[in-house]
């Protein structure tokens, strides 16, 4: 046994080893995607978030997103404050708050893939509305 074995299997290579948590990987696969580094949690029903680019924070959506391994989605990597999304989260119910690890599957009712959704977000300006489908 390797001294770096944990609750998963140890893969030894060269001078170090990598511990793979098999149970976590299975949970992620069954949950439909996401990062294996994110802690598994219950899936919420999909919901929509509508943000109007207005007010003091109109320039700052507050979402750091990136394309997922599956190019159909964007993954929320971080949420910044103060921002439009932090203002939304302050008013939203717990079940409808946007969280890191959430998937954005459509922007303005267009499920066009991660790169195209990024373009829609980046091209929006003051006074425009962005509608996100969150899963």
UniProtKB/TrEMBL annotation:
Every PDZ domain range: 48-135
Xref: SUPFAM superfamilies: PDZ domain-like
Lineage: Eukaryota, Sar, Alveolata, Dinophyceae, Gonyaulacales
Family annotation (InterPro entries): PDZ, PDZ_sf
Provenance organism: Alexandrium catenella
Protein name: PDZ domain-containing protein
Superkingdom of the source species: Eukaryota
PROSITE patterns noted in UniProt: PDZ
């Amino acid at each position: 046994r390797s001294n770096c074995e944990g609750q998963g299997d140890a893969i030894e290579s060269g001078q170090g080893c990598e511990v793979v948590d098999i149970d976590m990987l299975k949970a992620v696969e069954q949950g439909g995607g996401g990062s294996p580094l994110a802690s598994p949690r219950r899936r919420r029903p999909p919901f929509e978030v509508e943000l109007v680019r207005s007010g003091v924070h109109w320039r700052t959506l507050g979402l750091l997103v990136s394309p997922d391994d599956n190019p159909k989605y964007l993954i929320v990597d971080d949420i910044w404050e103060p921002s439009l999304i932090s203002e939304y989260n302050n008013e939203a119910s717990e079940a409808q708050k946007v969280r890191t690890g959430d998937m954005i599957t459509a922007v303005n009712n267009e499920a066009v893939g991660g790169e195209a959704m990024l373009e829609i977000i980046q091209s929006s300006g003051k006074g425009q509305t962005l509608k996100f489908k969150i899963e």
